[in-house]
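Forum: Protein Structure Q&A
Topic: Joint prediction for protein chains with partners

I've read a bunch of threads here and the consensus seems to be that you should model interacting components together rather than docking separate models afterwards. I'd like to see that in practice. Below is the full input, 209 residues plus whatever partners are listed. Could one of the regulars post the assembled result?
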Amino acid sequence: MRMILVGPPGAGKGTQAASLVDSYRITHISSGDMLRAAVKEGTKLGNEADGYMKGGKLVPDEVVIGMILERIKKPDCEQGFMLDGFPRTRPQAEALDKAMTEVGVKLDAVVLIEVPDAMLEERAVGRRSDPETGKIYHLKYNPPPKDIEGRLVHRKDDTAEAVKTRVTKYHSETAPIVPFYEEKGILKRVDGNAKPDEVTQRIAAVLNS
Ligand code: ADP
Ligand code: ADP
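Posted by a regular:
Agreed with the consensus. Here's the joint model:
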């Protein structure tokens, strides 16, 4: 299965991807995680992306498109992949479509996780991640175990201000990919305003239908 998770910042894409990839035996590809790793390593790509990411702006299309198209060619993507955070603009969606058509593979589904804007800031600001396991926690909704609290990471762009910019960008830049996939008949909408396990079940239900 080849699929995409779409949704505003804090919608639960990373959380859901982690629950779903095991059962579908596909590779999870998070553009945000890849970019953060590049920033940490100080690669050319990372240095280019850093300034955009801090402020909640999108990294330029040509940078992200190159990175993801290279990634999905790797052997671990042969059985399928779940893209999380890419595509985020219409040109990114078109570039992915073209690249997949060229190698004769198709997208099976695009799952749109819908969460009201009013909930996104609290979700993102309370987010913490464990650099050792990659697990995503939330101070209120999914509290981390006490003994690992000290090593948790609070993302630089999970401030109220940067989240506002990201939500605005989501509506202006990312929402236009929804009709692109709707026209192809592969868009599945899921209400993400429920407990994580319930949302996982809703996604599994639309994927199996
Ligand atoms: P995204 O990848 O879409 O930005 P995440 O999966 O990282 O979102 O989730 C953002 C924050 O919200 C995290 O702290 C996560 O623990 C929390 N979260 C995810 N899903 C839910 C949910 N269904 N209800 C409440 N909090 C959630
Ligand atoms: P979120 O949890 O808000 O959905 P991500 O981890 O997916 O965030 O992305 C964090 C940041 O990385 C974005 O605000 C943006 O700067 C950059 N980024 C990630 N994916 C893309 C993409 N497909 N196009 C452009 N920028 C991206």
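Strands lie at 2-6, 27-30, 81-84, 109-114, 127-129, 136-138, 187-191.
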